[in-house]
Amino acid sequence: MRTPISVEERVGLALWRIATGNSFRTCGLQFGYGKSTAKFICEEFEKALARKKDQFIQFPVTREDIQNSIDEFEEKYGIPQIVGAIDGCHIEINAPPRNCEDYYNRKQHYSVVLQGIVDSNLKFLHASVGYPGSIHDSRVLRLSGIYDQAESEQILSAPIRDLGGTNIKPLIVGDSAYPLSSWLIKPYQDRGHLPRDERKFNVKLSALRSVVERALNWHVKGQVENCNEKN
User: 106-125, pLDDT tens digit by residue?
Assistant: First the structure.
């Protein structure tokens, strides 16, 4: 009947693990606990975070929230009507016991795919994870739920803005792997002879898309890969 470990220590240990990617043994020693105790605390903390995720990872649906996101992107990157940027990353895993070939990706290792949509401040608006590494990004998009919501106009339907005589709905920005649609914009396909205006547009769009790449690298990919390597 030992004195229970305080909430403050539990949160501190779990945050240390997430922030550093160190092993459970190393994180436990940092706080004076063994590996199994550290692992149990971190797992409890992660489950608590998962239960709260919908309070913090929310795709903008109100007109005010959508307009705020649009305004921030336009102010920073000069491209109107952008709500978020989408991309995916591969989280390396050990070969699964079943259907392992489905998880073997083009980078020649086993993985699951994480798809994220972020705003101009690198805040996640939507996240979907667990798809086998061999699946193409466009298929992950269709399976993630965000595609059906956008197609049925449950999201990204307003506010509409007239740009050069064309009414443009709110948009998500993706790379060339994603399908072009009325709600998703991607770079012009470069076959070596793009007009100057299209090349300039691609450069600006690439700068904007970097927000999701930075978010995945900083907040997710590096931490998860470090954790996998050290355990």
Answer: 989 999 999 999 999 999 99
